[in-house]
Write a structure and sequence with these properties.
This is non-specific serine/threonine protein kinase. Pfam families: Pkinase. It is an enzyme of class 2 (transferase). Its EC number is 2.7.11.1. The protein is an alpha+beta fold and 191 residues long. 34% of the residues lie in helices and 14% in strands. The strands form 3 sheets. The chain has a 3-stranded antiparallel β-sheet with strand order 3-5-6. Helix 3 packs antiparallel against helix 5. The radius of gyration is 17 Å and the shape is globular.
């Protein structure tokens, strides 16, 4: 947390205000944006999904947060709607819960931490993955969930080769997520 909270800070990453140890526990004191909800609950209040313009606005903020983490050498590893807070008055988004996070390395990760249905296909196929492409993958899964109101995969096996089924009316821009899942792993753009 200290690495991502060093100045200059990012307004889309929850801020660590203080920390201390007590009886073998590390206690983190974090900022509390108010009023806010996690994005999962916020989306449910909207009827289960977001209009594309709102999803785009939310995703832009999440991308800014992940770029900030990358620049600080941190891999979040669990980007999902429950790990995002949205301030209900101005729709400002903050990335939270770095409990699965790790230092960002160029070497492949050989253990998975995070939410199983957001895991990258490389992990399912080979038991290893690279941090930056895995972040791009999780952003695509998040976008699908925001605009369609459900996760794109029901089981781990579905991550490999299943056809995505978008909600009716989803734009071609968003449906590009379907195309992106078939791009070779070497060709994925890094954040």
């Amino acid at each position: 947390m200290e690495m991502v909270c060093r100045p200059p800070t990012c307004s889309h990453v929850i801020q660590l205000l203080d920390w201390f140890e007590e009886a073998g526990w590390i206690i983190l004191v974090m900022e509390l944006p108010s009023p806010c909800l996690d994005v999962f609950r916020f989306t449910r209040q909207l009827g289960g999904y977001m209009e594309e313009s709102l999803a785009r606005f939310v995703l832009q903020q999440v991308v800014q947060a992940t770029v900030h983490c990358r620049d600080r050498g941190v891999l979040h590893r669990d980007i999902k709607s429950r790990n995002l807070l949205i301030q209900t008055e101005d729709l400002h988004v903050k990335l939270i819960d770095f409990g699965c996070g790790d230092l960002l390395t160029e070497a492949p990760y050989t253990n998975f931490a995070g939410t199983r249905l957001f895991q990258p296909p490389e992990w399912v196929m080979d038991g290893e993955y690279h941090g930056r492409p895995a972040t791009v993958w999780s952003l695509g899964v998040l976008l699908f969930a925001l605009v369609c109101g459900s996760r794109p995969f029901r089981r781990e096996q579905d991550i490999i080769g299943s056809e995505l089924r978008f909600k009716e009316g989803v734009s071609d821009e968003v449906a590009m997520v379907d195309y992106i899942q078939f791009i070779s792993l070497e060709g994925k753009e890094d954040i």
